[in-house]
Fold each of these.
Amino acid sequence: MVSVKTRGGAASSLPPRIPPLASNSPVLRDQHPGGPGGFWYSDGAGHKCLYTPGSVSQCFTVVPASNGGAGAVSPSAVAQSLARRAELAPGEIKTSPTREGLTGAQSWFWLAPAPTPQSLSISLAGETVNVTADPTVEWRFGDGGSLDGGPGVPYQADAPASDAITHVYDTRCLPGDQGHDPYVLASCDRDGYSVEALVVWRISYSAAGPVAGSGALPARTTETSASYPVSESRAFLVSGGGQ
């Protein structure tokens, strides 16, 4: 299961889809905005969109000059629009052991493909806006344990790598345990522990050109989860052989 939301879930913090551009902006009269090969087109919904080779397309809502100031491009508004369009995928949770964990033994977790920093940029009217999203991961293992770290690394037979994500379960959780085994945790789900990875993307932007600046944008969180059953290790006394 994978989902995307803004950190905190506040709809008001979502960046606008289409930034405004004043009707008297000189760039609207430029036949080749953004450089050679660039051109304006309509998206069919009343927006003016810019295509520039080697850059992402960007659409604007053209507003009357009285509401748009002097017609300058707003780097922060463009940055917010770019941030919304960034493809921020958390990847899928992989585990070792693959089928089920074992109490008292290390279980490994990692995301594949691992989320990596993402960047988008656009140039318009001499203004270049860059947006970068840097991920961190919060792991929740379903038994109350959690860990802030990275995306993890695949299992290695030798000593754990410094960036490995591991967890040791103390209590079993197998399908059918809940409601039948009084010793399982209340968080034990129908198919095992629910392991979650919350990828928090810290988003920032920088702008160079007529209007220079930089800043932070609302963080976004992508989530992925997986069921992970954990079996129990048991010790038995056996009679020893004669000496």
Note: The chain has two domains: 2-14+87-231, 20-73.
Amino acid sequence: MNEKTDGDSVEVNNDFALQILEQLPTPVMAVDLDLNLIFMNDAGLKLAGKDWAEIKGRHCYEVFDSLHCQTPECRMKQVMGGTEPCTVRNEAKIDGKSIPIEYTAAALKDKAGNIIGGLEYILNITDRVQQERKLQEQSRTIMEISTPVIKLWDRVIVLPVVGVIDSLRAQQMMKTMLKKITETLAKVIILDIAGVATVDTAVANHLIKIAKATRLMGCQCIVSGISPAVAETLVQLGIELGDVTTNSNLQDSLADAFSMLNLEVVQTK
């Protein structure tokens, strides 16, 4: 490699190119067609915790024992077979410690364009994965908080829903409700959607699925909080809730629940 730039003249030769690779903060390694290591920069050696003399000529999978190593998922083998460069996540085992990584693999070619090996650079994404797990945990916590199942009466529970019902939240609602039915031996569950601003075909389908799932658990589902606007929307969309009991308010829903359980509220003096 010999290049010169206009203006401030800087000659880029092979030695200088090697110095650039050595100074990169990202681990870079190269292998021959047999996956023998032919180069690794300082950042790579630091990640591996080895000196170059220890690993020179060894198979890359002996140094970075990743989940993809010696499997069809090895992107290094794929690019050496002619596929396009790609970036994927992986998990490497170094000195018995698992490290989440993201690596990019590309074919290593000679001046004639022949593939003579593979080139790979690696990112240690431990911090990113930890942050993602933290965000996922926070998301689960928020979902649980936003799906509070309340025991309203003996064998009667209520789930007040506020906000948007999407596929993820519908799954969380179903999971929470079924778990609560098992815990409380509930026979009637009231799904109060008075706090749901918009009910469309997708939301209605979610409600039907939830009602069917609770029925399989031996529990009747009552959908409460059907406002005039929601009722009009359901009619306009031609959505049928089937045999799901519906009400406009929680009071009527509770009365229906008592009726299902053969209970009667008697006013005393």
Note: Confidence is low (pLDDT under 50) at residues 1-7.
Amino acid sequence: MFKFFICFIAGIGAGLGTGFAGMSAAAVISPMLITFLGLPAYEAVGIALASDVLASAVSAYTYGKNKNLDIQNGIVMMVTVLLFTLFGSWIASMVPNTTMGSFSVFMTLLLGIKFIVKPVMTTKESMATVDPKKRIIQSIISGIIVGFICGFIGAGGGMMMLLILTSVLGYELKTAVGTSVFIMTFTALTGSVSHFAIGGMPDILCLIFCVVSTLLWARIAAKFANKASAVTLNRATGVVLAVLGAAILIVNLTTK
């Protein structure tokens, strides 16, 4: 019962973060499973990534159905992110002490505050004025940056993509989140398969509980987000990210 409770709570946080902001479930689920259930870090990350796959996929479907998804540039960025995540991981393996586990936590908290204080009010009309070739080049450069940092540091992918899509590429918030979860579906799938291939199958009950809970709450969050106004979505996303960031920070501090 305790295992189910922890996985369900972790899934709520991960699902809301994914559906509202394209956040990686690993940022929420991993510290919860490690802290409260004593799972090995590698196994916890594998479960979190597996939970991310379906949650991101159903969120991407919901955003796509509401025409809030840029598939063309999303595919370009996704391929670049995957390639440079591998490159970043290879570089990190040769450099000692590069782990920055708190990176994604602080980024989540700060990004949440940013959405509350300075909401993204870009419109689809202003997005359409950008030259398609310029957008593809921007997507490639952004994918290189996100992929390398994720591979090198090992965290922060979803948050970095959301930040770059809104602040650098000038995406409207719903389209940014939709494109982010679309990319995260494939990056999470790649990550989870490699984790299970290397580390073996994880705790099956934890895996099932986390996947189902994350999927349920991601679906709820994505449906709400696509019906909400820009102002409401910015505030809701900001609150969710700020609360999750603070909660994960507290959980991390209690383990030290």
Note: Residues 173-199 form the longest helix (27 residues).
Amino acid sequence: MLAETLRARVAEEPFNLVATIIFVLAIVHTFLAPMFLRLAHRFEKKHRQALEEKGRKVKASVKVQVFHFLGEVETVFGLWVIPLLIAWMLVRDWSSARSYLVNGVSFTEPIFVVVIMAIAASRPVLRLAEMIMAGLARLGGSSTAAWWFSILTAGPLLGSLITEPAAMTICALLLGRKFYVLRPPPSLAYATLGLLFVNVSIGGTLTHFAAPPVLMVAGKWGWTTIHMLSLFGWRAALGIFLSTAVYFLWFRREFKSMASVSPDSGADLLCRDANHCEADLRSAGFRSLWLRGPQATLKHSGLRQEPIPTWVTVTTLVFLGWTIFNSHYSALILGGFLFYLGFVQATKHCQSAMSLLPPLRVGFFLAGLVVHGGLQGWWIEPVLRSLGRLPLFFSATVLTAFNDNAAITFLASQVPDFSETLKYAVVAGAVTGGGLTVIANAPNPAGQSILSKYFPDGISAPSLLFGALAPTIIVALCFMLMSDQSGK
């Protein structure tokens, strides 16, 4: 029955199959991205050695840049929009392709993620988030393990208030400064990344406005924050704590070996990372101090105590709240962001230098995913309709790994006569699988972009999948085995 339906839809519109083939190729590309990065590093080394042997000045290699571009996960789906549009023009015409891009898809979510990432990465927000998590970390002696546990539990749950993209940005930045900078072993590094993605994916389900997959259905299905708390919230919180505790116990030896090096909460709040430290310090008025050397700069006690006035933090939170409140209206998001940029310029003495490149790369990734995802409904919708409660839950979990979970729930909201049991199953499955791949949940590219510099050969998709597998199973048990047949 399902196979006949899919064959009929392909016969009715052959371009459905073409669009899905291109989408599958894009997904394969995401899994091959680390290989392209390794090739880029290898070619760059050979290129540099060849020029140095000839006594010539080292110049950029086009070949190296091309392979580096192909290895950036954030560029994949945007890149594959090009063959999609070419195929569209060959099968149909340009006017219909243009109409689809202008009227058929909404780019509000990518715009929202770009703006929320930029504001959430600001120094006032980071300082406030660190203060909250520092209070929890002090319960464990402010050790590396205590910071790790605090960030991976409190941070994702904060996502229900400040939205998942903001929570992902803050957690990834703090993990980089408090944990990844200590160079954990690869197994722990990938386990932490997978755990972060899973926890953030379910951490926004305590409210009806924070998680993209919930946003897609909350209005149409009449789901409120009370509904989310009673149905999803406590299960999500339980899943987060259980998953984090399991990994904490599993890697206790690794944490003990890292205990001799304690993360420093000093200047790293001002410096995003070593590559940006000079720019950040100059923007904050510490140029002369930087010229004395990075080590002297980072040890400077005055820099550690750089104050942020309360009114600056409150105003930044107001801008953050404005963006969240108007998350469905791109004009209001962009208008508020322009005012925010002026505010940052006026208060630059207590701000870090703003880098829009990471948010824009993530936005480009999501925009490409939206373009491709909007053409996959022909096969996702009949698949969802044909399944019962448990099969639907597990199918949504698996499908989420190959398509953004917000797209899964959006397509589910278009299916008529969906029972409350099936509504619960599809949303629970979508958020459960949100950590399996980079493309599974909209905020994941933000975390990948921030933390990729701590993975020398790029983030491996199979390793990420393996790292997220155990937390995903634990969360699945919390959502399904602890609910009755009505889904409540």
Note: The two ends are 31 Å apart (CA to CA).
